[in-house]
Amino acid sequence: MEITKFLKTNALVGVIILGFSTLLSANEIYITQIGDSLDLDITQDGKDNEFGDSTTDAGLYGDNMVFSITQTGDTNTIDAIIAGDSYTGTWVFTGDSTTLTYNVIVRQQLAVAIVTL
In total, how many domains does the chain have? Predict the structure, then answer.
């Protein structure tokens, strides 16, 4: 009886730890920023890197923005809206399975995004 109880308890603990390690592997950022002169640098290193997703966008709204992101690992995702008078950025992705969905809305001047896959 004691051995069976011990095995069941250890099996349950193993399942719980495995579940938490799966949950903790995601690297998700959701942000809505409004205001001028944003200078934002993001580095995500790991698996399942997300900057916004299909249900919760990342939104950057304002003039004269600089936004750079580096995602290293498998399954990188960006789902973002960038809106303002000018935008400059560098996006670097290293790993397998990168998905980009973004809108850059520039009212008057220039948008420059350098994307490296």
Answer: 1
d(CA 91, CA 70): 6
Please list, residue by residue across 28-66, b when 16 or more beta carbons sit within 10 angstroms of its beta carbon and e when fewer do: ebeeeeeeeebeeebebeebbbbbbbeeebbbbbbbebe
Distances (CA, A) of 41 to 12, 93, 107: 41, 14, 23
Output phi, psi for 7, to 5 deg.
Answer: -65, -40
Q: Quote the domain boundaries for residue 59.
A: 26-116
Task: Write down the pLDDT at residue 43.
Answer: 93
pTM higher than the cut 0.70:
no
